[in-house]
Amino acid sequence: AVTRDYGETAKEKSDELLFHMLLATLSVTLLIALALGWREALVVAVAIPVTLALTLVVYYAAGYTLNRITLFALIFSIGILVDDAIVVVENIHRHFCLRDGRGLWRLSVDAVAEVGNPTLLATWTVIAAILPMAFVRGLMGPYMRPIPIGASAAMLFSVAIAFIVSPWAFAHILERFPPREHARTEESGLDRFYRRFMTGLLESRRVRFWYFTAMLGLLAGAASLVLFKAVAVKMLPFDNKNEFEVVLDMPDGTALERTRRAADDMAAYLGALPEVVRVTSYLGTAAPYNFNGLVRHYFLRQRPDQADILVNLSPRQQRRRQSHDIARAARGPIQGIADRYGARVQVAEIPPGPPVLSTLVFELYGPDAAKREELARRLMALLRRSPGIVDVDTYLADPQTLKRLLVRRQKATLNAISAAVVAQTESAALAGETVDLAHVEEEREPVDIRLRLPPDRRRDLAPALSIALLSRNGTPIPVSGLASVEARAADQPIYHKNLETLTYVLADVSGSQESPVYAILNLREPVRELARSLGIDLKEYYTRQPESSQQWALKWDGEWHITYEVFRDLGLAFAVVLVLIYILVVGWFKSFSVPLVIMAPIPLTLVGILPAHWAMGAFFTATSMIGFIAGAGIVVRNSIILVDFIGLRLKEGMPLEAAVVDAGAVRFRPMLLTAAAVVVGAAVILFDPIFQGLALSLMAGEVASTVLSRTAVPVLYFLLARREHLDEIMRKEAPQS
Question: What is the DSSP letter of 194?
Fold first, then answer.
């Protein structure tokens, strides 16, 4: 934050997140109270703060501070750490309602034993889904690592509390405060409809065909939202900050006064915006730089043709528009002012990441510097004509004339005037020289007294050359009589990356698709045509730098490269997740095919995730991917408990079809409570710009998977078990035939 009045301090953000954490805890507790009762809610409510406190101990041991990411990790964990307690307490509640004559303590032990092993396995699958993200490399790894570490630790603590503390506490509460009458055990109308629907689904091959066709249609429709760009993919969404910056570059060599006029015009427009509370212009010097300025080297801006305009907004709670919407709306008028002065301008927002020079960075490599410069300038012209491309800039400097003073040494020596005196005089006249300090009452610190020519006489060398120096006999001699002026072209700066020479062209994206991925796809063919028109065979690189600058090449860089690395690493982490879950489930069920049934609902979460992103107008970001991976573990958890319950019914002698239907009906309430707890826990971060994708993936993914997996898993298990049963009968009858 630049100032305490206008910036948002870390403490204010932490206080807000702590309030969200408390709100999530109370919401989950209220949900359980409404669904099961106040006794069950009390047990779960006690388990939440204990688990979070133990997780904070893990954070302390790991060296993490209490920051935005760790607090979001705790909020994220609330929705999943109550799952174990819900399953255990709900099963005790169900056994208690049976009234079969067992004692309360015996009943509690039996209820925990019934769901203990599958719950423990399900907990390990959730940890297996989350923990691999802690090993993601690159930028996203350290940034998001507290989430998998904290959530995994919270799951371990929650299962220990659910098996040890929750049954003991719940039994004591039931013993001390027994309910006046047992809850009704008859089925609801929804359960009866479910049994009729599932019976028809299991008995009719035609119904099953249309059912699976509808499932595949929903999945294909959801995936098409990405294909048709209704849901855009982006590294991280735009954050809602209390400031943004306008970076002004006048034509090289522009005097400070003209830079001031351009900056004043922009500041006047920006100051009139209703959300703006203060505009500060920094002329010929850098503004106080933040993370964005550190990465983009704004702290090096010290020339008179450069200016930074810092725009402070009112607190985000007091305005309707987010900072990105304000900056996007201001970009057009600001560009119009810059065009009047022939300047280049960028509207630089404070990004939540990634650290890149610009959203779009074109790295041009080639052996011919002049031809490479021509390609860069034509590329800039192409970008300015391209829709959705804004803030086009380059590191190429405008051609400048360098004027050098050559001292006539013989004449200077005859007059006893050294070349150093001539140089010092001209430097003081043009650049200025501090000669003393002034003590001004209005200023807290002494003010430099700087001696130099007035601004109107510093526009060229003539006034400086007219300054007279005294010879040895006191005769005044103008500098023009002691030196001559030599004009030549100034050397252009040369940029290197990893010791390879290159030319940079920068740009940003705006409009309906503010993601660099789609801009690159639209620009590929026009850039190739541009290179061919110059007789250049341009080779393109997307994920690495060319091995040598002696070949003509274009490296697509910027936010795209970070996006590729993050989604690549998250994709590898997801592959590891699937393998770990498969191994765990194979080890428990002693089958290679049952795990496939249990993991089948994982892609079904996309049926909810992608349409939810489309409905909210949100990007599918790295945090969305994290929510999808974490949701996969929760989905598998419910499937494991469901399939294990089918196995219990089969061991009790129930026919396969009846066992499948009964398991889905009986286990629906804990599955629904688990999904509802995740939805309520994630709802408090739904409108945070950065973690909105995480909340949407968890909430919509859980809703879709709970509804769809309640039918998909039983049907798939029924088909698999019936086939294996028929194969077993055929193997037994084969020797007799």
Answer: H
